[in-house]
């Protein structure tokens, strides 16, 4: 599906149902000037980046899919705030999801939101505390009949919902770009294949010439919980992959770490 305009009017019936609704005329993030009047309906850190990993060794996730890194707020210029509210640095996220009746989210995360060392829970906690707590529209004050951790569920659900709408592996494969131990690709080939589907330029990141991360940028009208996500050109960075000779290495699934298994009391 095209992600140029993605509306989250319903988010699988999750905690978003209690997030305060925003007027259709709410300003689009990164397009306002001066002080934002309603920080529950316009993101203070206005650009939102859905970030994906390609881990080949150690390998994470299925052989035919990228995995989730996170959902990062950005100040519309490449800078960002981090770890904004230590009082909401929730732990035992898997147990929170189970307790709130969202085992479906947890099951999806256990497949597609993976840590390269096998410590998925710590990875989720890090992404939430560093990035999730910084969304102004996910502040508890933005909720009606707020229950603790509602905003965490919305953050996780929005992250995976966006990820599902961005099938990077399939988009690249459709353009003839598939993992290979010998073939290389140009930056333009990869960028064009993804831009044609997403509607805006992705940010490509490489390590030692190997493609391992992609960021898709959005502006948002309304809350990150249930607003409209608009694909936009990224600001502040253009990635670090070379123009030519980019390797897209197959995943070596024999190197996949065993996930640390926790238990809920």
UniProtKB/TrEMBL annotation:
CDD domains (UniProt xref): RNase_T2_euk
SUPFAM superfamilies: Ribonuclease Rh-like
UniProt keyword Disulfide bond present: yes
Active site residues of this protein: 69, 127, 131
Pfam families assigned: Ribonuclease_T2
Signal sequence interval, chain numbering: 1-19
One Gene Ontology cellular component: extracellular region
Name of the top EC class for this enzyme: lyase
One GO BP: RNA catabolic process
EC code: 4.6.1.19
Keywords (A to Z) from UniProt: Disulfide bond, Endonuclease, Glycoprotein, Hydrolase, Lyase, Nuclease, Signal
Molecular function GO labels: hydrolase activity; ribonuclease T2 activity; RNA binding
InterPro entries: Ribonuclease_T2_eukaryotic, RNase_T2-like, RNase_T2-like_sf, RNase_T2_His_AS_1, RNase_T2_His_AS_2
Superkingdom, natural source: Eukaryota
Family label: Belongs to the RNase T2 family.
Protein name, entry field: ribonuclease T2
Record lineage: Eukaryota, Fungi, Dikarya, Ascomycota, Pezizomycotina
């Amino acid at each position: 599906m095209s992600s140029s305009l993605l509306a989250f009017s319903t988010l699988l019936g999750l905690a978003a149902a209690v997030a305060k609704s925003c007027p259709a005329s709410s300003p689009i993030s990164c397009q306002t000037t001066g002080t934002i009047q309603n920080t529950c309906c316009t993101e203070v850190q206005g650009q939102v980046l859905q970030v994906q990993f390609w881990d080949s060794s150690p390998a994470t996730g299925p052989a035919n899919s990228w995995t989730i890194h996170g959902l990062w707020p950005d100040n519309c210029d490449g800078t960002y705030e981090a770890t904004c509210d230590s009082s909401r640095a929730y732990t035992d996220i898997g147990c929170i999801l189970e307790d709130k009746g969202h085992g479906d989210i947890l099951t999806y995360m256990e497949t597609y939101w993976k840590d390269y060392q096998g410590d998925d829970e710590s990875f989720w906690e890090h992404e939430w505390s560093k990035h999730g707590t910084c969304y102004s529209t996910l502040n508890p004050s933005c909720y009606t009949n707020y229950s603790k951790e509602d905003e965490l569920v919305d953050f996780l659900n929005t992250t995976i919902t966006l990820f599902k709408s961005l099938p990077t592996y399939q988009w690249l494969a459709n353009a003839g770009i598939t993992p290979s131990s010998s073939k290389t690709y140009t930056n333009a080939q990869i960028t064009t294949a993804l831009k044609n589907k997403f509607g805006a330029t992705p940010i490509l990141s490489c390590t030692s010439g190997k493609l391992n991360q992609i960021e898709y940028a959005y502006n948002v009208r309304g809350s990150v919980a249930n607003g409209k996500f608009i694909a936009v050109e990224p600001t502040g960075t253009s990635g670090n992959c070379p123009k030519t000779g980019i390797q897209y290495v197959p995943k070596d699934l024999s190197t996949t770490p065993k996930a640390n298994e926790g238990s809920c009391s």
